[in-house]
Amino acid sequence: MAMLSSEKPVVLLLGQIFFAFAEWDALAAVAELRVRPENLPIGSSAAAHGVPPTPFHKPKADRCFDTQQIHDGDRDRFLSDCKSGVHDGVFAISRTYDSVQRFGTAQLTGRFDQEVVDVLPQSLKFVCHNGAGYDQIDAQACANRGISVSNTPGAADASTANTAIYLLLGALRRAHVPATALREGQWRGSMDLGHDPDGKVLGILGLGGIGSALALRAAPFNFQMQYHNRNPIVHPSSNPTNATYVSFEELLRTSDIISIHLPLSDVTRGIIGQKEFQMMKDGVIIVNTARGAILDENALVDALNQGKVFSAGLDVYENEPDVHPGLIESDKVLLLPHVGTATVETQFKMEALVIANVKSALENGSLLTPVVETRTSKL
Questions:
Q1: Could you list the active site residues?
Q2: Which of 55, 227, 328, 372 has the maximum number of C-beta atoms within 10 A of its C-beta?
Q3: How far apart (Å, rounded) are the C-alpha atoms in residues 81 and 68?
Q4: Three-state secondary structure along 292-358?
C-alpha cells in the first residue's frame, strides 16, 4: 500500500461520476471517499443532502458515500476551503472536466493553475484528471509540489477520431449547408459542389493516439497521408498506415486537408496563424478536434473570407463556450460544440481509467498514465 497508516487514505471527487459507478464504489475498500454534495452520484444519498437528481441520468437508489459538506460549489469556495484546512488529509483527487468549467454556471474549481496548486493540501500526492488533454492543469506546478498528475490517453482515441472523420468528410462537401437548407424547407438551398476524398493529401498534425486512429479511418477513402510530429515515428505500430513524415512547413504547403491533433501547450498555442495560412494551398480544408487555441481564430476567419480556406470542420474553440462570430456566420464552417468524446462508451472508459489511476496511486504509489511533466514521480 502507498500509505501505511491504519486509516484509509482520503480520495476527493471533484465533478460527478456518471457511468463508472461500480469502479468508484470499489475504491471504498481501500479509501475514504469524499464527494462534494452537489456532485454526489445520483440517488437517495444525493437527495439526503438536498441535491436534485440530474435529469439526463436515471437515479441510482443505493448511492451512499462519506461526504464532505461544501455549500458553495465554486472556485472561490474551493480556494477558501483549501486554505482553511477543509481538505487536509486528502491523498488523491479524482477530477472531471466539468470541475474546470460548468457551462452556464459557476466554475467548480476552475483551472488547476498556480493559484490553486499553492493552496492544495500538503497531504495531496496525486491528481487524476478525466481528459486526454490536460491543459486545464498546470502540471509543472504540480510536479514542483511533488504532486503526480494523470490523464486518460487512449480512452478517447476512437471517439475523437470518429468525430474528426465526420468533420473531415462533412467539410469536403460543406454538407451542413444543404442539411440546414433542408430543415428550413429550402431543399438544397444555395449549396456549391464539394470535393471527393480520393487522392487528396491528408496532413495529420500530431500522429499520436488520436492522429493514428484518424489515419486508420481515413485509409479506405484513398487519401495520401503525411504527418508531422516533433520527431519521426520509429515503431511501425504507431504509424499503422505508413504515413509519410514531413516537416511542419511542408505539411502546411502540400496538404489538401490539415487535421489537428496536438496537445495545447505554450509551444502549440497559436501555432497556426496568419503566416501559416498563407503558406497553405488555396482551397485547403482545416479540421480541429484538439484544442481551439492551437488555431488563431481571427486568422482562420480571414482565410475563410478570402477563400484561402475552402471549409473547416471544428469541434473546439479558442474561448469555449464562446465561438468567434465569424465562424458562426460563415457557411463554410461545420461546427460542433466540443462533443468529440460525448458517447456513453467513451465516457465510461475515461471515468474507469481515472478511477484505475486513483486505485494504482493508493495501492502502488504510482499512476498508470502519468503526464510527461510528472512521469518520474513515485511515492
A1: 291, 320, 338
A2: 227
A3: 11
A4: HHHECHHHHHHHHHCCCEEEEEECCCCECCECCHHHHHCCCEEECCCCCCCCHHHHHHHHHHHHHHH
The predicted model scores a pTM of 0.86
pLDDT in tens, the chain (379 residues): 344 444 789 999 998 888 999 999 999 888 988 875 445 444 333 333 333 333 333 333 333 333 233 334 688 989 999 999 999 999 999 988 777 765 555 578 889 999 999 999 999 999 999 999 899 999 999 999 999 999 999 999 999 999 999 999 999 999 999 999 999 999 998 889 999 999 999 999 999 999 999 999 999 999 999 999 999 999 999 999 999 999 999 999 999 999 999 999 999 999 999 999 999 999 999 999 999 999 999 999 999 999 999 999 999 999 999 999 999 999 999 999 999 999 999 999 999 999 999 999 999 999 999 999 988 655 5
| The one-letter amino acid at 61 | A
Order of strands across the sheet with 32-35?
A: 32-35, 10-14, 90-95, 126-129, 148-150
Distance CA 356, CA 362 (A): 10
Per DSSP, the three-state class of 66 is coil
